[in-house]
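chain below, 133 aa
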Amino acid sequence: MSQYSVIVTKHTNGAYVINDQIDWQGIFPFIAEFYIKEFETSKKKPSRVLLLGRTNQIEIIIPNEFNIQDVLAAILFKGNLTAFAESNYFQEIEKRRLPILFMDKLSVIPFETQRKLMQEADYALDAYPAAYS
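prediction:
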């Protein structure tokens, strides 16, 4: 099982920063279904949320002065993969990122076919480093 850590901070403009990435919303998202396995809060140390998926585990560290519900609502999508793929947020990212993934000779593939190919590949973006640049 792959394990990831997500450390949430805030930019001076008030926006959430993920692992020192200010523009984390501009990159292709990590797409998988998770459930909350552990949820720990403390007044003295950062809060910790552990998400468990089929093949991945994500630990989210949130400073205790942040509202946990606000942070989770900002960085996670509540719903299933189908609802996420149909969301305006995800469709905007696809419009920006699919041309980067399907470039050169692959650029002739129609956009809807590109979307279907990504869905069939189960959004295995680790094979596409350009999705994260």
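Residues 88-101 form the longest helix (14 residues). The chain has four helices and five strands.
thats it, cya
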